[in-house]
Structure formats: C-alpha cells, structure tokens
Design a protein that fits this description.
about 130 residues, mainly alpha, about 40% helix, elongated
Length: about 130
C-alpha cells in the first residue's frame, strides 16, 4: 500500500511541477502524425519529428495543431519566484565626544587616608 501511494504521489508531483506533464500530450503527437501520414504516405516518424521539432517554429496551415504537440509551447507557469526583501540598515560609527574636566585639588581618596589608619588592618570600626 505504501509503495502504491508513493508512486502515486511521485507521479502527481512529476506531472504537475516539472516539464514531464508535456508527456501527457503524446496522444496528440500520434494523432497529428497520422494526419500527416494520410496526406503523405512516404513520411516517416523521423521526418515528421524533424519537420516539427528540428526546423524551428514553422508557421504553416496547421500551426494550431502543431502548438498542441509536446514541448512546442509553454503551458505550465508554475515556476516559483522568491523575492527577499532585506531591511535597510543605516548605522554610523562616530567618535566618542570626550569632555576634559580639570582635576580638582581635593581628591576623595587622598583626603580620607591617614597614616594612623594604615598602621594596623585589624582596627575596630570607628565612628567619625
């Protein structure tokens, strides 16, 4: 059952999204060959194929029938076009603006350091 389903889905995909769907027009090719055979008994299949496929697009009396043959016209327009829209990103790299400040005469750390505080690290906390 799985094999039948797989073959069915594969044939559906191949016939709809690739150019293999043109093979479904083979009965029209056979019928058109027999029409040419009725007009000219000496025509072979090879000369028929060369007439319709080997000499470019011939504009003759049976052009409408010729365009119904496989691989003569583009009937399937299911080509995909992907369009990716990228956002515009604007950025600037600017140099930082520094404001130079004059150093004050009194520095916080220097004003609180006393030589007596540095004599021993094991002193109890003092309330100032």
């Amino acid at each position: 059952m799985r094999r039948v389903l797989a073959i069915l889905l594969l044939s559906l995909y191949v016939s709809s999204s690739t150019e293999c769907f043109e093979l479904l027009k083979i009965p029209a090719l056979v019928e058109h060959f027999y029409d040419h055979k009725e007009e000219n008994q000496a025509i072979s299949l090879w000369s028929f194929l060369c007439l319709h496929y080997g000499h470019g697009d011939v504009n003759d009396a049976d052009r409408e029938e010729d365009m119904k043959l496989p691989y003569k016209s583009v009937d399937c327009n299911n080509g995909l076009t992907y369009l990716t829209l990228l956002p515009e990103i604007h950025f600037e790299i600017s140099r930082p603006k520094f404001q130079l400040k004059d150093k004050s005469e009194t520095d916080f750390y220097l004003s609180r350091l006393y030589s007596s505080d540095q004599s021993s690290i094991w002193q109890p906390p003092k309330i100032s």
